[in-house]
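tool_call predict_complex ligand=magnesium ion
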Amino acid sequence: MPRARSASTPSSSSPRGTGELALIERIRQRAASASRSAGAVRLGIGDDCAILAPPRGYEIVVTTDMSLEGRHFRRDWHSARAVGHRALARGLSDLAAMGARPLAAFLSLALPQTVAADPRWLDDFLDGLLGLAALCKVPLAGGDTAESPSDHVLADIVLLGAAPVGKALRRSGAKLGDRLFLTGALGGAAAELASLAASNTRATNTRENDAPGKSRYARRVDTAEHPHLYPQPRLAVGQSLLRRGMATACIDVSDGLSTDLAHLCAASDVAAEIEVAKLPLHPLARALGAEAALHAALHGGEDYELLFTASADALVPRTIAGVAVTCIGKIVRAKRDHPAITLIEADGRRTPLEPQGWEHLR
Ligand SMILES: [Mg+2]
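tool_result ok
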């Protein structure tokens, strides 16, 4: 983290300037005021490395997520605030899937010169990122900046979390007869992305970013209405599952149910049956009509819900940490040369489901 050190180096650049040091200083100031209670972070931005002190009896879990303009977001569709929020949410969702609690985030940011020249984009990006960080009590403890040689923004986030030794939830523990559960609802992110693509959002985003005064994050829209722009990582659910010893396996649905359930099945060497009628569909997905809603739920991706298994006799509540939990199917024996997932329609018809994966922006 050599650049973190340079943040503390006196420089003639003003924080309002556009140089790399000015960018770092801007991030450092915002991060410092956002994370006074830094928890495990003994030393944050300002030296060659950050120093973390994980809680006794815990082990460190690490995840990294790249948000690349043109692949994961578009500046003409996504406000800087949404880009910042989503960049952090992706990694936090991975921690949630392990049942881990977040310790610290590290941000590496490459900005095109044209973006770096206007501090509003970075300010709004930090509003989104640090706003979610504050909600989830994860300090930004370091990172790096560079000028992007292309016209694309790149935000790479590393997240460190902690889980009790040997207890982190994994994809590999599902057993025959386990029931399959899902938090929240599916298809909302894909539905909102489709509407972003269909509408002229450039004007909307410009208005949002240009709106004057008060904290932009305080005006954060209701996330239930904006599952694509402002997904809520299910950290409290994951930690509760770990604490209760309830989940035999867990994964977050970032790439779509068909893909992520296939990952869980492969890791556990099992297969799964989904009852279509039980799938919780997000209202935005329902509005697309039945067929499109089901497609969004199965393949849409970016819903950042948790998919977990629990033994058939486990008493899984209908809500955990305020989030609805729905039983959507069960774990069955894997058959050679058969797709891992079978859909069961309301009339009992059985259809094999091939993973289709999340489609990047095209
Ligand atoms: Mg994941």
